[in-house]
Amino acid sequence: MSDSTELPAPEKLPAHVAIIMDGNGRWALQRGLPRLAGHRAGTENLRRIIRACVEFGIPYLTIYAFSTENWGRPREEVNGLMRILEDVIDRELRELNEQGVRIRHLGKLDQLPSRIQEKVLSAVEQTRQNSRLNLNVAFNYGGRDEIIHGIQQMLKDQVDPEQVTPELVSRYLYTSGIPDPDLIIRTSGELRISNFLIWQAAYSEWYVTPTFWPDFGKEEFRKALVTYADRDRRYGKVSSKEYEGSHA
Ligand code: IPE
Ligand code: IPE
Ligand code: MG
Asked: CA of 212: how far to CAs of 101, 147, 237, in Å?
């Protein structure tokens, strides 16, 4: 049935959606606007997607907002992205709190300007009690940096090599305590991981759309969830039904 508001049954929804919010620059270029206008439009869209997660009952949303490689962009753009993060915290924190959103930060905080560090820490602290939607903001995040950081911590803790298991490694990552993403969405059509959640994505389902992030609204998000609900997540196994079918 193609009721355009239809959602998959709750048990078919992903518990954790992670999004590579890509294509802001191209969205702006298409309109003859500066790249930063694209980033601003991207934050407007983020607000729509957060609301949709709250409405659809998705408990975890992780957003890739600034990678460890994004420092290599022109200084003006980097500064603009820092300013946007600050503005978003200032403008949106109250409403996020009202919606029951708990904010966490993923990445290296201490390399960010000190004013931003304070704002991020304060947002995390102020929303600590919320539990409706866990919003993980990957800002100055890199998957390799995260793994190196985890290894360094393990060595400092003198972890016994025999005790290193996938569960232990997961506990040493920035995402400690957060389930692995079920669904990773990348907007703007790029077919690469770009250093995002490289450990956690081991068995995530992917959804890539050519739509640029500022245009990836609630309806497209719903379509991604419908597609996800139809996926057969095999985790390397063969179901007993398939096995019996092939031996009939
Ligand atoms: C994604 O949009 C946002 C960040 C990486 C901060 P881009 O800025 O990468 O947009 P494109 O890929 O150049 O279009
Ligand atoms: C990934 O997008 C990072 C974020 C969305 C924050 P990029 O635009 O930086 O990735 P590449 O350079 O196309 O791989
Ligand atoms: Mg990009």
From this structure: 25, 29, 35
3-state secondary structure of 29: helix
What six digits make up the tokens of 74? 């022109």
**Does the predicted model carry a pTM greater than 0.85?**
yes
Nearest-CA residue for atom 9 of ligand 2: 70
Nearest residue (CA) to ligand 2, atom 1: 194
Distance, CA of 85 to CA of 107 (rounded, Å): 14
Note residues around ion ligand 3 (Cβ under 5 angstroms).
22
24 lines ligand 1 (CB under 6 A): yes
What is the tally of structural domains in the chain?
Answer: 1
Annotated catalytic residue 87: no
CATH of the domain at 231: 3.40.1180.10
> Which one of 22, 45, 134, 140 is the catalytic residue?
22
Residue 109 forms part of a structural domain: yes
pLDDT digits (tens, 9 = 90+) for 159-182: 999 999 999 999 999 999 999 999
Q: Nearest Cα to 108, choosing from 150, 146, 155, 144? A: 146
Q: Is 22 a catalytic residue?
A: yes
Angle at 111 between CA 164 and CA 169, to 5 degrees: 10
